[in-house]
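User: I'm preparing a small set of examples for a lab meeting where we compare how different chains pack in three dimensions. I only have the primary sequence for this one, and I'd like the structure in token form so I can line it up with the others. Please keep the answer compact; I'll paste it straight into my notes.
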Amino acid sequence: MSPDIDQRVRLFVFGETAKAGHVPTASEIADGLHLSLDDTHAALNRLASGRVLVLAPGTTNIWMANPFSAVPTPFRVLAKGRTYFGNCIWDALGIPAILDADGVVETTCGDCGDPMALEVRNGTLAHPAGVVHFAVPAARWWDNIGYT
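Assistant: Understood. Below is the structure token output for the 148-residue chain.
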């Protein structure tokens, strides 16, 4: 029974986030899927254990539904007439890809702090100049995904 609920919750979270521009709450998920809040919380915990979602510490509030962030970050993405937030530059660039849309990532230079806008058109960077720096190797991201 739980794999079906987990899949329904997963699809709802990502579908609603893409459609609405924000990550749904547990109550919104329960209401949208006609589930009990207890079943929704259990599914969110299982999805977090499987690294499908990241929950805010000590809660069942979704913090990250990669590439989407449930909270504002320095990686703002404008796409499909909505504003989304990526958890990092990697995720921010992934948002137009997952939406199959053009978009603009607004952030700042990690070196000097100057504002930057990266435009994604037809699945590629419109002006592919610059350097993306990952301070933590990808193999270690899940050691502390909130910090990474």
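A couple of notes for your slides: The first strand starts at residue 54 and ends at 55. The mean pLDDT is 92.

User: Perfect, thanks.
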